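Bug #77: duplicate submission created two jobs. Keeping one. Sequence:
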Amino acid sequence: MKIITLCGSTKFKKEFGEVNEALTLLGHVILSVGVFVHSKELKIKPSQKVLLDEIHKKKIDLSDEIFVIDVNGYIGSSTRSEIEYAKLKDKKINYLSDNNCPYNFNLKNISN
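Kept job's structure:
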């Protein structure tokens, strides 16, 4: 059992849910995004954006690894920052788009 933080654009709310469910059913503890800003076109203050980024990096600190939800290979600036942070913290990184991902669920059903 691993603790895995999901990272990716918040416009992929549906994919976050599907990956969360699949990894949970494999027996992992999943930490995810708390606010899906882009999926709802939610307006937040700059200070709230900073706070959300800090919270998500704390989740990465608590994790064994991160799972990047890079639908169609998309990685935005916030996600890129989270990946770099995870690398600095020596966290394992897996990607939805990676056909060699070690998890035994059908990634193609999730990412298409």
